[in-house]
């Protein structure tokens, strides 16, 4: 059964007089097999303490609480707390520093004076100084690089040390999930830059900013600077936005520019570029850095020219162009290709989440999205939908995006077949750009129609399906073949979905088995909870359901056969 773990990140500098520090954390449901981890790192530097905390799910093996003094005071000191557990929910429950840390005792002052600084940028040239403890004869000046556990920080440190050298961490290279290293070469000409790429398609990208963030970074080669670049192509009814962050070519000078390559009326092509020469300086968080500099002309009067309009990536416009009336003063139809080079090659996937209850999802549920996700290495595109039908209503929970997966596969599972309650899921992992492009569920969702003559005259059950909690559950006659009433909640987490679905209705199932004890549907972990019933041990799809590995070249031929060869649980 999946664990709930405390989840959060905290990085801050405190005065020693303000400790102990206390905190609270959010919670998240982990994937099956994952445990809870917590890592706390404290660096004491005279009157200040730098705190780094991360809590999350982890695949690491269980580890009893371990407190390590990497360097003892007086002067600069480093201590860490690490813990991995699986024995109960939220077992990573450390909530204060006073469980294992106390300030260093007052030291006999010496004659050496050193600047004292903690900074995630540059320490000031006139940083405040402290009198070092007796026996401390050198000033430390270095950068601690912390990577992992959703921490990506370059922490500049200045303080007192008893001997020269770049060894604040005493050779430590890893603390919990955090990789640690240090660099004490003030003349180092290598930078660390945010790294990543972004691709978005939509209708209003020239008017509405989109997030542009990166959780990764890279070490540049000597002489390189950090860069961030945006390119916007807007055809009027559809836009394309491409972004890149990383290291530039050697020799780039600090600069920032917005360029209009093609102006309205008609197609707009614009770009934003920035080069900078300090660690992690390419920090633009949204496309507003470009949009705020674009012209905002009044809506143009229509002209007499009509042109096909399309912006398409990884494909052709043939068959997808719409004819529109062009603005006044435009005279020609453009038709061309733009090749981009110098951008890191990434997998791009359609991205979206849909959670709703519908009367007829076959006709009302549109499984398309204009958002695009940029995948990390080792990730494929995925599209997953879970459908749960109770009476006339069907809950639809669908997700598209990137997900770590080793091999392409298509999975269709009837967790609970008719009569009565019905639960089915479809999942597709594929490795071509934007291949998670299923638009409809009509190929695999064909619920059985039940007439009045097929209904029992003796068995009636409260019937409902709702995201969250059912507000009402009318007692409805059950279909023939059902023998009892079911009541339970399906808790789902992953793929951008964090929801519970309450289900009541008629079934022939025995026990809490609406999901057939399956614990994962695509990227979503599944937890089924039923009151007053024992919860059966969950199992992965691979251990019970039939799922076929289909190479992409034959997917179109085999998918109809796959959907005809359904294996269900009883």
UniProtKB/TrEMBL annotation:
Subcellular location: Cell membrane
Gene Ontology annotations for the cellular component aspect, listed alphabetically: plasma membrane raft
Biological process, per Gene Ontology: cell-cell adhesion via plasma-membrane adhesion molecules; cell-cell junction maintenance; leukocyte cell-cell adhesion; positive regulation of neutrophil degranulation; regulation of integrin-mediated signaling pathway
InterPro entries in the record: Fert-Immune_med_protein (IPR051899), LY6_UPA_recep-like (IPR016054), Snake_toxin-like_sf (IPR045860)
A Pfam family it matches: UPAR_LY6
Membrane-crossing segments per the record: 544-563
Record's protein name: CD177 antigen
The species this protein was found in: Sciurus carolinensis (Eastern gray squirrel)
Lineage: Eukaryota, Metazoa, Chordata, Craniata, Vertebrata
